[in-house]
Structures are given as structure tokens and as C-alpha cells.
Amino acid sequence: MARQGWLWLVFLMAGHVAHAQPAPDAGAPPDDDHALIDPNAESEPAPDGAGAAPTAPAPAPAATPALAATPPTRAATPAPLATAAPALAASEPPPLPFRHDRRFLLGLRTGPGRQHTSAIPSCDCDDGPGGEIDFIAGMLLRPRLALMVEIATHVETLVGSGTLYDEELENVALAVGVRGWLTRRAWLEGVAGPSRAWVPPVICESGVDADPHGCDPVFERYGGTLTATAGFELVSRPSFSLDADAVVTQAFYGDFAVTAASLALSVAWFSR
Predict the structure, then answer these.
(1) pLDDT tens, residue by residue, 63-74
(2) CATH code of domain 104-271
(3) What is the bridge-based pairing of β-strands 186-199 and 168-181?
């Protein structure tokens, strides 16, 4: 009886020591007494006389399907310059028209020309050399539209016989109209107004060599004039232009008419 008590005491002490021993380090090699059991290995039958039941094999872990190795994708980022340029262009105001800040113009036109006069009374005349000189003023209603006022003078020397032989016939008009720029340099203009055709006295003195007409005009008529002009700015600046002009004028005086054409140069100053 005492022998069985000692055996139970030894057995309890051995079990207490086994539970108190620390677990082996994961990185250290396992001891022979604590060797890891491979779950896939078949357990060996216990030795005879042990009476231990065979250990069932542990189930294999479920196989995890391998994920396809796909490179990480990155959302495309638009280039900042490609998006900033259109936005900047859309925010910028359109360029201002040429001469947008000009309101008035003053100019002078002159050049050679030819004037045809039909059926002047008291003169069997032919057309002689001539020319024109014009004083121009205008107000810009828009950058490409101006209200114009002109004092135009066409001069022709009458060649032939009769009372007005070798006299100068002047056609003077005060005309109002508009000028429109088709482009920055090219423009068209049309004006109309009253006019006067006359032959001024040559000498306005008394004496032997005095003009028999005295100081009165030798010939004088009143009528109306239409003038069309096409111009091109050879030099184009915001405040100045030098133009080449083609001018055609038609004047009506009842019993005769005057048609004049000239090629001229004109200068114009534009101010605020």
C-alpha cells in the first residue's frame, strides 16, 4: 500500500514539471523531446503494451488560389499645361479693334486729275489739265465707321476758244457722308452735298488792262455733287495714316455737268 502511494506521488510531480516547462523558441531547433509533429505525416503505431490509440492525420489546409500578379494601375493625370492653356485662352478678353480709342480725324488730299465739262455756255472748250485739293474732317462713330465732312475743290484749265478761253473752271463742294473700313487698311467713302462751279475773275482792278467782268465771276452756277472714293492706307498707325486714293466726282448744274477723276495722296491724323 505504501509503495502505491509513492508511485502516485512521483507521477503527479512529473506531470507538474511538464506543464511548468516554457514553450520552445520558434526560431530555435526543436528538442528531441519536443519535436514538432508533421501534420501530413502518418502517425506511427504505439509500441506494444502502451495501449495508445492511433493519432488521426490532421486535415490539410485549404489551398488558396494564387492571385494573378497584376501591376498596380495609376489613374492618368492630365498634363497641367494642356488643361491650363485652353482655360487661360478662354479667360483672356478678345483683342480690341484698331483705333478703338480714336474719335476724330483731320486730313488733306491732293493729286492730279482730269475734269470733263459738258456744254459750258459761251465756250467752245476742251478739257485741259486739272487736279484737286480736299480738306477732310471726320468723327469715328465706331473703330471702322466714320462720319465725314469734306471741302473738295477740283480745278480745270479750259482749252479752246470763246469767252472762257484759257480760264480756270473751279468746282467746289461741301459734302457730308460716311467712310467705312473694309479691312484695317482698305476703306470706301461716299459723300454728297451742294457745289458751285465758277470761273473767277483774272484781274480785279480798274484801268486799261482791267477784266471786263470786274470783280464778278466770269461764269457761275450752283448745283449738287456726288463723290465716291476708294482708299488704301500705305502707312497705317493708330494716330496717323498715309493713303493712296482714287476719287470720282459727278456735279450737276442744270444746263451742264462736270465729271472729275483723280489719283491722289492723302494724310490723316487721328485723335482722341
Answers:
(1) 555 444 555 556
(2) 2.40.160.20
(3) antiparallel
